[in-house]
Design goal:
2 copies of one chain form a homodimer. Chain A has 11 helices and 3 strands, in the order βαααββαααααααα. Chain A has 235 residues and is mainly alpha-helical. The first copy, chain A, has a two-stranded antiparallel ribbon with strand order 2-3. In chain A, a hairpin with a 3-residue loop joins β2 and β3. The first copy, chain A, binds a DNA duplex (30 and 30 nucleotides) through α3.
DNA sequence: CAAACCAATTTGGTAAACCAGTTTAAGAAG
DNA sequence: CTTCTTAAACTGGTTTACCAAATTGGTTTG
């Protein structure tokens, strides 16, 4: 995982340029699945950039499953036809930097699903971990301290209990960004944290009783303020 | 993302080991947000691994927002307290390789959302691109050829029209894996493709008429078989 | 004529060397 | 003793050089 998911540097533009050149090359030479690309060295001199940049671009395309590299052999186009290849590369090039609004929107979506799945699939061990996270959160709030971390860990514990590793990965991906923005914009304040305890407890009880519908409802209540924030934010 | 999001190599284990050692170091030294980690060189000799491995591990932790590196200065622990730090690192280490079932489950979840958002937010240009993808799919199927690529691009066009770049990125991430598994297990066959044309058209019409509820219903119909497959697959 | 072998070249991966800022600390001046 | 100067050591990032595996083309052998 090497790869950071999205480059935010100024290298971004040059890497995108290289990616588009690779696309053009594949189209021009009519490369099909399994065909070999020129070596990194040749590409670097053909595009007049450093080999490192070429490697970076190839790794990005590898991340999206469009290319694959075999050590001491070469880089090959994946088992995806030219239509999908072009379409996906264009999508990748057009990808915008995710903003806070879409981040929150996605988090709500994911969590309303994980809480349902957790209510259906949770093991006793999952339940125990969720409870521990809940207690840690309550204690911190009762002491009047900031509990953003414990809040987060409660939600991550639910994500883990959902048994869906893909969603779990996505949650882990967006969580840090969420935290930094929350603390930056002070979305959560003190009295909200207090009401949050009961809301967390409601969600926990629903998961404990294996009631997916209720769990989802309680999570919706918990997200109510967040929901408003998400759809009232200026575009 | 440079990170490729998840390493599948055997380097995986050694990198995870380094990550856990970094966690132990942070705990042992009681490092707080803003504190500096030892240099990559020192860590590499302390852990008795190459500097490259250390760099890779740090970049992974950077991807999840737990560390940040300042050029020519050092690597620092992010503004996340020790509780969240430990919790998240443990989650990262425990992350399982996503299997096909969770992949499909996640795809259905994401698409039922994107199609709603697309119906609400689509621009005229979005609609045009979706229509083009639809036509390309129909033609391919009519000619009796395999149309997995065009099918995919139709769904990606909807994701783009949803206006949520975070979900869009996630869709792009899971799509290649979906494709390879589809072609491997032959989830889709010929007659399904034919019925798929009308289903696609229904979805398109709903988006065109800006009817989010209908769009979601039609997409559900389209996913019906996939849905069954997802929940009947052996665990 | 075909198959098997071999050496040489090419490949992606990796470790070492290098670079340009930053930090640190020692030393000189006041 | 304090403060400013300065140079040396250290930092993450980048380029370069090297490596072992694998492909390739030619040659030999059955």
């Amino acid at each position: 995982m090497t790869t950071e998911i999205l480059p935010k540097n100024e290298n971004d533009s040059i890497q995108k340029e290289i990616i588009s050149k690779i696309r053009d090359y594949i189209n021009f030479k009519n490369l099909e699945p399994g065909d070999k690309l020129p070596s990194e060295r040749k590409l670097s001199e053909k595009f007049e950039v450093s080999r490192g940049n070429v490697r970076e671009a190839i790794q990005t395309l590898e991340f999206y499953g469009l290319l694959y590299s075999k050590p001491q052999s070469g880089t090959f186009v994946a088992d995806i036809g030219p239509v999908a290849m072009n379409g996906m590369i264009n999508d990748i090039l057009r990808l915008e930097e995710p903003d806070f609004k879409t981040l929150v929107e996605t988090r709500i979506l994911l969590e309303l699903k994980t809480v349902r799945l957790a209510a259906l699939r949770r093991t006793e061990e999952d339940l125990k971990e969720i409870e521990e996270a809940l207690e840690a959160y309550s204690e911190k709030v009762m002491q009047g301290e900031d509990a953003v971390q414990e809040d987060l860990l409660f939600h991550l514990a639910i994500a883990k209990a959902s048994g869906n590793s893909t969603i779990n990965t996505f949650m882990l991906t967006i969580t840090p960004e969420i935290i930094t923005n929350f603390t930056k914009y002070h979305v959560c304040d003190k009295n909200v944290a207090f009401t949050g305890i009961q809301e967390h407890r409601d969600v926990y009880e629903a998961i404990k009783n294996k009631d997916p519908q209720l769990a989802k409802e309680k999570m919706k209540v918990h997200f109510k303020m967040l929901y408003q924030y998400c759809y009232n934010i200026k575009d």
